[in-house]
Amino acid sequence: MPLVRKPSSQAPAAAPLALGEGTSEQRWSAVRAAADRPDGLALLADALSRESDPRVREAIFTGLARLATPESAALVVPYLRSDDANLRTGAVDALRAMPQACRPHLPTLLADGDADVRLLSCELARGLPDEEANRLLCDLLERETERNVCAAAIEVLAEIGRPEAVPSLVRCGTRFAGDPFMIFSLKVATERIAAPARDRR
Amino acid sequence: MAETASKRILVIDDASLVRRYYRDALERAGFEVDEALNGVEALEKLLAEPADLLIVDVNMPQMDGITFLRSLRRQAPPIASIPALVISTEAGPHDRRAARTAGANFYLVKPVAQDTLVQHVSIMCGLSA
Amino acid sequence: MNEVDPVSQEELRAICEFLYRRTGMLFGEAKRYYVQRRISDRMNALGIAPFRTYFAYLRSDADGEVEKFVNAFTVNETYFYREDHQLRCLSSDLLAERVRAKRRGEALRIWSVPCATGEEPYSIAIWLLENWPEVDVQDIEIIGSDIDTQCTAAAAEGEYGARALMRLSPQLVEKYFVPAGKDRWRVVPELRQSVQFSSANITKASETRQHGLFDVIFCRNVLIYFDDASRRVAAENLFEALAPGGFICLGHTESMSRISPLFEVRRFPDAIVYQRPLIGGNGAGGKGGHSNG
């Protein structure tokens, strides 16, 4: 039985270089180490502003998600406005990974002037406690004019919605009475929320 | 109905209500419908069982629709050549161009009515609408 | 007998979607029945009804409910030759591809992490000895690591009960184990020397890096317990621990899509596995799409 072998000794990875320098492999190692340093936030902020390699940028987002402070979340927020779908996705995923850090930003984000930002922020509200998410999303539904933003809010409420959300959903429906998708969504969402509730046994 | 029943449509969208809406329309028209919540899950499903047509959203977690299409077109046939209908909230020229370059066959902007959807899907599956 | 609240298809779909978003576990139509049963079990155990109330309880993760729910699909499954389709994939496809990519004489390195009490790394060793024709000519290194040093100590001892061996034929048991008391068997010394054990926490880069580069990593049913941030870190650590072109195998209900866009998904006849791309990551091709606009 010849599988037996001596353990090999592999050299440990080289110490991280300065950020923003070297090959993408070296930059990846450097940004990955940054979150553990006391000046990590500043290092990652600087790296994010200069980085163009998607994989290294993902690692920067991960580092910011590990820090998980309102400041690290604030660095990711501008990327919700990107023209590049890959970047927008990366930003939402990173913010989703730090729900507590997003919390102070959400009221502002849900009232942002850019409809795309409001739309993506609805998904982030899913990470909040139910009551808070219901309140924020219902407030949005009452004032929101963009159909796709309303659709995103309804999507989240279809899962986390409480009975208190039903009036806002109904009022929203009156504004999109001619829109088959919205009628469909609102019907499914209100059905789910109002599913027959019996008492705890 | 007889010809639509043999066509399998994979709907790729992170919004459950959107998938429900498409599924509802397509199943009534006789299509077989499967769902994926993002690009990676879609690739996993397609590698297990190919589809006749893909309906792809752009903004999705983990792997967005554009990155998914690029990855799809790099796969081995027959998966690489499955036609893709992109349906997105993004109406801007940047996203349309990115989708086309990545390998989308058609681009629609939400909202899409159910009969419009069935019509496009039928045509793209080579059936008379 | 407990009365069970009926759960609609719609509700079942909603809970599967939540579990997928939260854990990366994918429950296809075929597995929905088990999900439904588990929901009923948990609702009965907790005395919670209707479904909507339980779903809110699960989402709030009160008293670690997500882990309790998920455990039902993974625990008590540490036996030899578990998920042997992946082992078949290893010997029929993955290793051949890795051998082609390597220099002559360079070792093939396989990592089982977390390895719990060692059933998986020993299974890999036995499987290769039994099923991979090149086992005698290739230099193969198998490492099992776990965060729990009690587990790795037990793994190094290599002593198992009948339940762990249930999937092995009597011939294999006789060949690779010696009796060690009533209903106990111990892995033969040569096989024990074929597998090294170490401690590693896959969310700590400093710990994963010490293990060097691997050709194949088995990382089953652990990422599902992590929150998003830890999962991202673990995925990056595993990416770094793979040689370019190396493979990673996850548990049967796990989907990489909740874990990381870093890897490419590859289909082989026996399994779907994930691969570290030869150059860069998955998004590396991303810039081409904007250049001709």
UniProtKB/TrEMBL annotation, chain A:
UniProt-listed InterPro entries: ARM-like, ARM-type_fold
Region (Disordered): 1-21
Pfam families, A to Z: HEAT_2
Tree of life domain: Bacteria
SUPFAM superfamilies: ARM repeat (SSF48371)
Protein name per the record: PBS lyase
From TrEMBL, chain B:
Ranges for domain Response regulatory: 8-125
4-aspartylphosphate modifications at: D57
InterPro entries per record: Bact_response_regulator (IPR050595), CheY-like_superfamily (IPR011006), Sig_transdc_resp-reg_receiver (IPR001789)
The entry's keywords: Phosphoprotein
Protein transport is among the record's keywords: no
UniProt-listed GO biological process terms: phosphorelay signal transduction system
Protein name: Response regulator
Native organism: Reyranella soli
From TrEMBL, chain C:
Domain CheR-type methyltransferase intervals: 1-268
GO biological process: methylation
Enzyme class: transferase
Residues reported in the UniProt entry to bind S-adenosyl-L-methionine: N76, T78, R82, E120, D146, R220, N221
Gene3D superfamilies per the UniProt record, alphabetical: Chemotaxis receptor methyltransferase CheR, N-terminal domain, Vaccinia Virus protein VP39
Top-rank lineage group of the source organism: Bacteria
InterPro entries: Bact_Chemotaxis_MeTrfase, Chemotaxis_MeTrfase_CheR, CheR_C, CheR_MeTrfase, CheR_N, CheR_N_sf, SAM-dependent_MTases_sf
The entry's keywords: Methyltransferase, S-adenosyl-L-methionine, Transferase
PROSITE patterns reported in the protein's UniProt record: CHER
GO terms for MF: protein-glutamate O-methyltransferase activity
Entry EC number(s): 2.1.1.80
Catalytic activity: L-glutamyl-[protein] + S-adenosyl-L-methionine = [protein]-L-glutamate 5-O-methyl ester + S-adenosyl-L-homocysteine
Function: Methylation of the membrane-bound methyl-accepting chemotaxis proteins (MCP) to form gamma-glutamyl methyl ester residues in MCP.
Name used for this protein in its record: Chemotaxis protein methyltransferase
Protein species of origin: Reyranella soli
Organism lineage: Bacteria, Pseudomonadati, Pseudomonadota, Alphaproteobacteria, Hyphomicrobiales
